[in-house]
Each structure stands twice: as structure tokens, then as C-alpha cells.
Design goal:
Helices cover 42% and strands 19% of the residues. It is an alpha+beta fold and 415 residues long. Helix 1 crosses helix 4, helix 3 runs parallel beside helix 8 and helix 11 packs across helix 15.
Length: 415
Amino acid sequence: MIGYEKRVLENGLKVIIHEDPSTPMVAVNVAYNVGSKDEDVEKTGFAHLFEHLMFGGSTNIPDFDTPIQEAGGENNAFTNSDITNFYELVPAQNIETALWLESDRMLQLRFSKKSLNTQKKVVIEEFKETCLNEPYGDMWHHLSALSYTKHPYQWPTIGKGMNHIANATIEDVKSFFYHFYRPDNAVLVIAGNITSAEGFFLAHKWFGSIPPGKNQKKLLPQEPEQISSRKKIIHQDTIPHDAIYRAYHMDGRLTDEYFICDLISDVLANGRSSRFYQKLYKEQQLFSTIDAFISGSSDPGLFIIEGKTMPGVSIEQASEAIDRELGLLMEENLTERELTKLKNSLESSLIFSEISVLNKAISLAYFETLGDAGFINEEAERYQKITAGDIRNTAKKIFRVENCNELIYYKKVGI
């Protein structure tokens, strides 16, 4: 059980303090409730751009890395479809350095054409490197657009295309910042060697005077139920193997189905004892790599299967083999031994993740953006109550042909 206290400042900032006197460190985590799903369809990639811009200097601080390093700490950030998250880990006595940095960039970034152009170039280069120059690098672009017709999950976090970032103006950036990166759209977590009283005092000292925004979260279009399968075929000469990707629609992060699907992905592809590894990789040698995972999104997401075939193995053979394994899940219950082993492994992973004060800070902030930081203490129980029947029934619901979006890469052979 992870204990914490929560208060909301007058400007709307949610503050959560988790005391852990066993560590000499303190983690400071700020999660903004904005991700790529909140972007305009004609201006995508902005949340990811802001992850970079937030390190480009704020109104009083030109450089973020040097003060943190001098304080003996580390900092980083990540963005996904749902949130933008910034964190620092510092010795407890230097906590105010981290709070100073985070509060100043929440107050106001240093908006300049020079900074914007610098970060735009960085993001565009990242787009080229990861999406255009890597084999299968455009997978998320194709699979997302294939799977979603209405919901803004239809584009990846990095954005639809380089032109959206290239065309971003100072006015666009300011508007996005003052709409989303405000205290009333954020969660501050302070976790580690600090008392709740001191934590709340420092939170108010550094963040209490920052004005709130006028954030009105728009209602996102809900994805309609998929009633027929979709397929896209791509021929590329830069890929080493033919590949198959499948995406099946599943429920969102807070539902029981989410936890069941997470367990199913472990049945299929978590480790050397998993079914895909044992049957399709080791025994039948159909794939050079094969995996199954869930997108982990807040709104209804995707259960994804990806496999790269061995030379001489056709996509048809690979697809039939995957279907056989999914069919077994839909037809037969897992044994109690297999189910217990999976649950114990998941629970061990959860316990291990809670050892790190930084991981606890990130998780508390994330669950609070979902509605309640207390969800962090419910996960283990939700996995433990899953039955073999739940897995079979969910597999039947998820792995229907009409619920499948399939992306196929064929290696283009030169003439």
C-alpha cells in the first residue's frame, strides 16, 4: 500500500505528497493532462514538441540541465497520447532546485523564434531518424490511421508529418502552452525523504502564485465499434524481413478488460515460457521476432501483435500460426498453474516498480490524471481476481476477425 496525502491549491494545481524516509532522495514529478490526443488534426505533434520546448528555457531560467546537475540530481521527460510528464530526482536537501525549475517553466516559457526553430529542427530530425530511416519506422502512422477513424489516437505522438511541426508559429506555440500547461491542468507529486507538511508548504511557496488557465477539455470523438476487418499492404525495399502487425480494439485503462488484456499479452509473449516464443519462434521457427502488447492508453486502446517472419516463411503461414494460438485462447481455459504463475509474475513486477521513489511519483501523478491517485493501490487486486474464464471470454471478444486491423510489410525485391 502506497500512502499519500493530497491537496488542491487555489489555482487548481493538484499536489500529492508521498513520504518515504528510507531514501535520501526526493522525486519531483509534474504531469500535464495533455497528450497528442488533445491536438488539432491539422497541427499534430505539438505535445511532443513541447516536451522539447520545456527544456529550452523559461522566463527566468535559460538552462535546466546545469542547475539539476549541480544539485546532484537528474531530470527527464516523456510524452504519450494522454499526458506530458516531467520529473527530477535530487538529494532531499536540494529539493527547492527542482521546484524552482518546474514552477518557472509552468509560469512561462521563454518564447523566441530562435528557441522554437532550434527545437523544431530537433523534432524534425527525430521524425526522419525514427519514422523514415528505420525499418518499419512508419508502422505507428499506418496502424493508428488504419485502426481509428474518429478518435485522435489515429496519429502517433510524434505527429502525422514533419510539415505540421515545420509550420508551427510562435502564436501557435503560445496558444497551446497557455491552454494546457497551466496549474489547473497539472498534477505535482513530491515523493521521498520529505514530510507532508514541508511538501505542501514548498508546493504553495513555489507554485501557489502561478495563475490558472481557462482550460476547457474538449470532448473527444468516440471511436465507433469496428464492424469489419481492415488491411493495408506496404512494399518496402529497406526492411530486412516481411512483417505482420495486427491491432485489435480493447477497452480503456480503468476497465477490467484492460487488466485481462494485459494478462493475455503476457500469456502470448512475455518471456521464454510464453506461447508465441515456445510455439512460433522456438518450435516452428516461423518468426525472427514476435511480440504481443497493449497500447496502455487512457481511452479505449489497442491489443497489438507484431511479428517479423523468417526467410522463406510466407505471411500466410505466419498469419495462420497466429490464428491457431489465438484460437486456443478462445477455446480452452488456461490451467490454474499457468494462470497463477502469470499473476505472481505481474505482482512481482508491480512490487519491484514500487521500490523506486521516482516510479511511485510518476505513477501517482498518472493515476491522478485518470481521476484518482488511489488507483495505484488497486492494481494488484484487479490482476489477482482475473479467472481463466475471464481470459477466454475476453479473447473471444477481442480477437474477432471483424475487430482486426492488419498491416503487412513485404520486402520489395529488386529487379
